[in-house]
Amino acid sequence: MSKKDDIELEIEQTATEEAAEMKEQAKKTIQLIKEKASEEDPKLTPSLTLRTILGGDFLTAEMVRRQIWLFVLMVVFCIAYVAIRYQCQQDLIAIDKLEKELLDAKYKALSCSSTLTEKCRESHVLDALKQNKDSLLHIADQPPYIIYVPE
């Protein structure tokens, strides 16, 4: 049995050596992966081609991080543009409404003015006075006299 024990001991040593080798190999592999894998984006080539633009390769995280304030500014301008345009449209609607009201008021004033002009004619005034018998006014038969006063 001693041979059997020796063989088992040898097998155990071989298994532990293989396990140690596998651990070392796994550590080396992990180390290589860590070295190769980085969170940095690859550097851009100096020439931008249509393919890189259409593919979106030029929008790397580094470029976006450098230009974040530009993007924020563009968003603010877009919001301001929409708000100002909306306000302008509301003002134009109010102006149109006020112009219609002004036109109606002008027509009403014109109508009132023509009615007043008609009622203020000399002949209408004299006829109204005769019907009411309030006055003895009548149309003059002779032209008015002009009196010159020397100073």
Can you characterise this structure?
There is one protein chain. This protein is mainly alpha-helical and 151 residues long. It starts with a helix and ends in a 19-residue tail after the last helix. The chain has helices at residues 2-36, 50-55, 61-66, 68-119, 122-132. The protein is 73% helix and 0% strand. The model has no long low-confidence stretch (mean pLDDT 84). The chain is built from 5 helices and no strands.
List keywords for this structure.
mainly alpha, single chain
In terms of topology, how is this protein built?
Elements: H1 2-36, H2 50-55, H3 61-66, H4 68-119, H5 122-132
Summary?
Helices cover 73% and strands 0% of the residues.
Low-confidence parts: none
Q: Termini separation (Å)?
A: 168 Å
What oligomeric assembly is this protein in?
Answer: single chain
Would you tell me the structural class of the helices and strands?
mainly alpha
> Mean pLDDT, rounded to whole units?
84
Radius of gyration: 52 Å
Q: What would you call the shape?
A: rod-shaped
Percent helix: over 70%
User: How many helices?
Assistant: 5
Helix-strand string: HHHHH
Largest sheet: none
